[in-house]
Amino acid sequence: MWRIEWSRTALKELYGLEKDAIDRIISKLEQAAADPTHYFTRLVDRDEYKLRIGDYRLIAFIIHETDTIFVRNVRHRKNIYE
């Protein structure tokens, strides 16, 4: 199981969402922590990865040396890539 770390920005964005969206995002991230390479997709020309959760996207760094998922942002899909 991989360790999950959150940036302050990501936590602020997460807790600004509705309760059901928060529950879905946390559940999916915990599921993805078992095998991040299966769930996350690398962004083109970037070192970050995305995780799709319905209309929301989670942007994270996958750090293989320490088995860590560092969550950078959580936003609606229309705003995440700005």
Summarize the structure.
This protein is an alpha+beta fold. The chain contains 3 helices and 5 strands.
Set down the secondary structure blueprint:
Blueprint: E1 3-6, H1 8-15, H2 19-32, H3 36-39, E2 41-42, E3 49-53, E4 56-63, E5 68-76
Parallel strand pairs: 1-5
Antiparallel strand pairs: 2-3, 3-4, 4-5
Q: What do you see in this structure?
A:
The protein has helices at residues 8-15, 19-32, 36-39, and strands at 3-6, 41-42, 49-53, 56-63, 68-76. The protein has 82 residues and is an alpha+beta fold. It has a single domain (3-76), classed as YaeB-like fold, CATH 3.30.2310.20. It has a five-stranded mixed sheet. A hairpin with a 6-residue loop joins β2 (41-42) and β3 (49-53). The longest helix is centred in the first third of the chain and has 14 residues, at 19-32.
Order of helices and strands: EHHHEEEE
Number of domains: 1
- Write down the CATH topology: YaeB-like fold
Radius of gyration: 12 Å
Structural class: alpha+beta
Overall, the morphology is globular
The biggest beta sheet is recorded as: 5 strands, mixed
Strand percentage: 25-35%
The count of strands amounts to 5
| pLDDT < 50 stretches | none
**Main sheet strand line-up:** 1-5-4-3-2
- Number of DSSP helices? 3
Distance between the termini: 31 Å
CATH superfamily: RelE-like
